[in-house]
TrEMBL record:
GO molecular function terms noted in the UniProt entry: arylsulfatase activity; metal ion binding
UniProt family annotation: Belongs to the sulfatase family.
Region span, Disordered: 546-570
Keywords assigned: Calcium, Hydrolase, Metal-binding
Record-linked InterPro entries: Sulfatase, Sulfatase_CS, Sulfatase_N, TAT_signal
Protein's organism: Paenibacillus solanacearum
Gene assigned in the entry: atsA_1
Source taxon at top rank: Bacteria
Key word Hydrolase present: yes
Assigned EC number: 3.1.6.1
Sulfatase N-terminal domain residues: 60-438
Protein known as: Arylsulfatase
One protein family per Pfam: Sulfatase
């Protein structure tokens, strides 16, 4: 008989867990040399399906901006307390999706975003390099957005974190790619341009990787204008903020001194009320208790000053990212390109509760050299980041997969400042970009058969909050879920299915599985059919490839769910 987990009676075993290490690097010099630009399209054509308001006749530029480990409501336009005026301005002049989801983890999300497939189909079902062929690289039966757009006449560029295994971005369709490794935000080591390592001595002394990534991206676009101004471009801007380690510039940290002093309990309740007032969440939804996610109350926190510093640094990292997004947007505005640029902003997973234990409170987060092994911002602040949802990165309950999603496209959107509540997920990115650009998804690519796209274009959602997509699926580390209309079936690894009506209960508070056994069977059957089709392996099948501890423990192993005594049942 399957175990039934109590929402109010479990803990998360996260203390020793690592994940993806944040990318680092930077400098102050612009890109030297010009990109090799693609030829004219040989495979263009509009996708079928509904398009209430077709894109402008001229192909739009496309910019995808991805944050790393940022929660659903960290930014201002989603109710957050961090200063994000540039993202807020994009939202005020664009569209916000309130029910967009990722895949709960870094590498799988990036694989799904770029390919229009579920990560298991694309060859990146888990953290890169962890489990042999299941996570080695993007496989040969998928095609990336960059590869398709390059064939359609776009210049294709990337700056930031790749995290998709041994196949590098310039080998998957990018004309120019500044590829940043994991690690210290103040480090200049390991940065690559199209696979070649750059000399750290070439970077300036005032270095912070978020700044440098943006400088590289701006430089690539400036060169694109000089070399091929008549061609549209695709920019994949993949920031490493606010992923650990907690490192930010002193002037940014100083802005947040005292802002979070009330603690996560009070601030979370305030944010929840604010989000209702903003129309982001339904008035019927309830705020889950912190204990539902294994997080302590602020009153019980024994290292308050350290935790406050951690949150101040985290906010500074998000703030700096927003400043740099402002730099990028201003470049597009000054060049006259912003009007016909489709810009999409999102995060790769929910807020992150890894490394919740503090080893040494004398070591404060913030400056160069701070290591995540000493501690991250913890489950309490991660719960604030993920308000109103419960759970975190790794899980497919809403806290692990819900992300902000901002669309800005003056030439292609009729309305401004509106919310769209139709569900969508990362597989929908590819068909959206292809419809906007008038490109076609290929059946074959360079002689290889390509798996059919799993997504649907989101342009109908952007325009009129409509979609013909019937099911959404998720799986990561044995945590799995399926959504059909308002119903979501979800479970933790090795535990029983839970059923929620997300229209009335978007925070997953009231499990209806016992009252709706027929619906549970219907949705679980659909999940099993999808899992078979999408190449979802059982944990015991891919763990045989595990590097290090075969149980998946250790600094880079998957999370273990731990319960209090008597956790079975409610």
């Amino acid at each position: 008989m399957e175990k039934k987990i109590s929402r109010r009676a479990f803990m998360i075993g996260l203390g020793a867990l690592g994940g993806t290490i944040a990318a680092a690097s930077a400098g102050a010099w612009l890109l030297g040399g010009s990109p090799k630009l693609p030829g004219e399209s040989t495979a263009s054509g509009e996708l079928g399906g509904p398009a209430p308001s077709l894109p402008p006749k001229k192909k739009p530029n496309i910019v995808v901006i991805l944050a790393d480990d940022m929660g659903y409501s960290d930014i201002g336009c989603y109710g957050g307390m961090t200063d994000t005026p540039n993202l807020d301005a994009l939202a005020a002049n664009g569209v916000r999706l309130t029910q967009f989801t990722n895949t709960a983890r870094c590498s799988p999300s990036r694989a799904s975003l770029l390919t229009g497939l579920h990560p298991h189909q694309a060859g990146m079902a888990h953290l890169q390099g962890m489990y042999g062929p299941y996570t080695e690289k993007l496989n040969d039966n998928c095609v990336t957005i960059a590869e398709v757009l390059k064939e359609s006449g776009y210049g294709t560029y990337m700056a930031g974190k790749w995290h998709l295994g041994s196949g590098l971005p310039h080998q998957r369709g990018f004309d120019q790619a500044y590829h940043y490794p994991g690690g210290d935000f103040f480090s200049k080591k390991g940065i690559m341009l199209n696979g070649g390592k750059l000399n750290p001595d070439a970077f300036g002394s005032e270095y912070y990787s978020t700044d440098d990534m943006t400088t590289r991206a701006i430089g690539m676009l400036e060169n694109h204008r000089k070399q091929a101004a008549e061609k549209p471009f695709f920019l994949y801007m993949t920031y490493t903020a606010p992923h650990f380690p907690l490192q930010a510039k002193a002037k940014d940290i100083a802005k947040y001194k005292g802002r979070f002093d009330q603690g996560w309990d009070a601030l979370r309740k305030q944010k929840f009320d604010r989000m209702k007032q903003m129309g982001l969440i339904d008035p019927r939804w309830e705020l889950p208790a912190l204990s539902d996610s294994g997080a302590p109350s602020w009153d019980k926190e024994t290292s308050k000053s350290w935790r406050l510093r951690a949150m101040e640094v985290y906010a500074a990292m998000v703030d700096c990212m927003d400043q740099n997004i402002g730099r990028l947007v201003e470049t597009l505005r000054a060049s006259g390109e912003l009007e016909n640029t489709l810009l999409l902003f999102l995060s790769d997973n929910g807020g992150n509760a890894e490394f919740l234990n503090i080893k040494n409170t004398a070591k404060l987060p913030g400056g160069p050299g701070y290591a995540v092994a000493n501690g991250h911002y913890g489950a309490g602040w991660a719960s604030l980041s993920n308000t109103p949802f419960r759970m975190f990165k790794h899980y497919v309950h809403q806290g692990g997969i819900a992300t902000p999603f901002i669309v800005h496209w003056p030439a292609g959107l009729k309305e401004k400042g509106v919310l769209r509540k139709t569900p969508a997920q990362l597989t929908d990115m590819m068909p959206t970009v292809l419809e906007a650009s008038g490109s076609s998804y290929p059946e074959t690519f360079k002689g290889r058969a390509i798996i059919p796209s799993e997504g649907r274009s989101m342009i109908p959602i952007f325009q009129s909050d409509q979609s013909d997509k019937s099911y959404l699926f998720w799986e990561h580390e044995g945590n799995c879920g399926v959504r059909h209309n308002q119903w979501k079936l979800v479970k933790f690894e090795k535990y029983a299915w839970e059923l929620y009506d997300l229209e009335k209960d978007g925070t997953e508070m009231h499990d209806l599985a016992a009252q709706q056994p027929d619906l549970v069977k219907q949705l679980s059957d659909e999940y099993e059919k999808w899992a078979k089709r999408a190449n979802v392996l059982k944990k015991e099948d891919y763990m045989k490839y595990a590097k290090g501890d075969k149980d998946g423990e250790g600094p880079n192993g998957p999370i273990n769910l731990r319960t209090f005594k008597g956790a079975a049942g409610k």
